[in-house]
Structure formats: C-alpha cells, structure tokens
Amino acid sequence: MNLNYLKVFHTVAKHQGFTKAAEELLISQPTISVQIKNLEQELGLELFQKLGRKVYLTEAGQTLYRYTTKIFNQLEEAENTLRDLKGLGKGRLLVGASTTPGIYVLPEILGQYRKLYPGIEVVLDISNSHEIEQKLLHHELEIAFCGGEGIVHPQIEAKTITHDELVIVVAEDHLLARKSAVTLDQILTEPFILREPGSSTRIALEQRLQQLGKKIKVAMQFSSLEAIKQAVAANLGIALLSRFVIDQEVCAGRLHILKIPELTIRREIKLLRHKDNKPSAPVQAFLRLLQERLTPKCST
C-alpha cells in the first residue's frame, strides 16, 4: 500500500472530513478525494460513507484506521528517537489540558519552555476530559493535564503534580463579602452560576451537595469560566471556582473568597500519558519545568 495514501486516509479519518485534512496536509480537497479513491480501488473496499458535510468510517475504514494509528505512532516515535540524538534544536511538543490547567496553569510554564527551547513547536490542545482521554488513547497527544477524577482508563497513566481547591466566590461588594463569618445555609439561599453539565467543577459541586443532602438555586450556566467570573463580579450570583481561575481577580480586588468548609473542595491536578508511549526529549524537558510547585499567588 502507498504510504502517502495511508497518511491522507488517516488524516481524513481523524478529522471526519476533507476540509480540515486538506488544511493539515497542505493539499487541495480534490487531491485528497483522488487519493482516497485510489486507495479504495487498491483495497477493493469502501472506507468512507458521506453524510452531509461529514464523512464516517465504514467497518473496513475503522479497521484500517486502527492500524494506521499504530503505524504513524511508531513512525513518529522513530522520528523522535532520532531527533533526540541531535538534541533539542528542533521538535514538537503536543500537550492536552482540560480548561482550568489549560488556561490558568500551563501558559506561564509553556512560555518559559519556549524561551529555553525556541526551536520546539508547542501545541496546546484545550478540550474536555472525555476528548482528552480519546486523544491520548489515539496517540494524538503526548501528555495531558486534567483536574479531578475525570479520566480513569487502564491504558492511561496518571500522576498527581499539584493540588487545586474549589472555593465559593462572590463580588467584592457583595453583602456576604462584608461578613466576618458566613454559614452554609446562607450560601444556599444565593443564586448560583454554574459550568455546563459534564464539567469537572460542576460534577464536584453536585457530588458534594449530594453528600450534604442539600440543593442550590441555579441562576445561570456558562461553558466559559471567564463569563462566570464576569457574571459573579457583576453581582448576578455566586460560583464555585478554582483558586487558579480566580487568582488575578482576587489580587485585583474584583472577587472575594468566602470560607465555607462544607463547599471547599480539594482536588488533584494530574499529568496523564499513554502507558505505551516513551516520553520524547521535548516532553522530558517540559516535565523538568514542572518540578517547581504550582501555587496560586494571591487567592489564599
């Protein structure tokens, strides 16, 4: 089989479409169509079915995709191994992360990494926990970072690198911010602003409320942490957020932390990698930068 045809097939299957595959491979969509057709003719099997703008793998396509994933993963591992022999002058670092570590923890470290190794291309993929898991399993990411217990899979190795704390926050001029002590019952009368269902932060809150046998009033829900912070600062409600997320706003005096022991949730931020993947030189260099403890500066 033609290796170039397999590369085109693998990229189309990964993106479930020709447009993104063409952008990644830097070739035209008609060229991709021709090469897929040639591969199907060579194999005597249909690999894709087209429904609307998306293409889906047939049973034969799914089988071939499993093999091409292994093939290109081994080729990349070979390239990385050979590149290691030349040092860190060139290379690529593929990092995945859930929202909190991806936006509020990793950028500063990645900035330091780029200064140390300017020849290494850094790719940060911020996705939800389920997508991170799938990309690790398909070897589309080398390492990833997630909060809580969102990913548990026998093929994924998890290591705690630091701890995070979810706390209740209100606007700095909120009535409760002026009190020396606030009770759980007082908090439960306030309107809550939540992340979308499936968010690890929301799951943590729902689990804690279930343990306490309590309920809250949900005023709004957003998929954006920035939107939640803006809404809380505007006194539209209160929220449970990570200390990493609110660090700057607490420093600037826009948000205030309420110390509610029952709703203060400590969780782990974990480094994840596929057990079959040997860390490349770029990954090893990045992990060395994580030795310094990750701690929010002001939100204490």
From TrEMBL:
<dbReference type="Pfam" id="PF00126">
    <property type="entry name" value="HTH_1"/>
</dbReference>
<dbReference type="GO" id="GO:0003700">
    <property type="term" value="F:DNA-binding transcription factor activity"/>
</dbReference>
<dbReference type="InterPro" id="IPR036388">
    <property type="entry name" value="WH-like_DNA-bd_sf"/>
</dbReference>
<dbReference type="InterPro" id="IPR005119">
    <property type="entry name" value="LysR_subst-bd"/>
</dbReference>
<feature type="domain" description="HTH lysR-type">
    <location>
        <begin position="1"/>
        <end position="58"/>
    </location>
</feature>
<dbReference type="Pfam" id="PF03466">
    <property type="entry name" value="LysR_substrate"/>
</dbReference>
<keyword id="KW-0805">Transcription regulation</keyword>
<dbReference type="GO" id="GO:0000976">
    <property type="term" value="F:transcription cis-regulatory region binding"/>
</dbReference>
<dbReference type="InterPro" id="IPR000847">
    <property type="entry name" value="LysR_HTH_N"/>
</dbReference>
<keyword id="KW-0804">Transcription</keyword>
<keyword id="KW-0238">DNA-binding</keyword>
<dbReference type="InterPro" id="IPR036390">
    <property type="entry name" value="WH_DNA-bd_sf"/>
</dbReference>
<protein>
    <submittedName>
        <fullName>LysR family transcriptional regulator</fullName>
    </submittedName>
</protein>
<dbReference type="InterPro" id="IPR047788">
    <property type="entry name" value="LysR-like_Sec_metab"/>
</dbReference>
<comment type="similarity">
    <text>Belongs to the LysR transcriptional regulatory family.</text>
</comment>
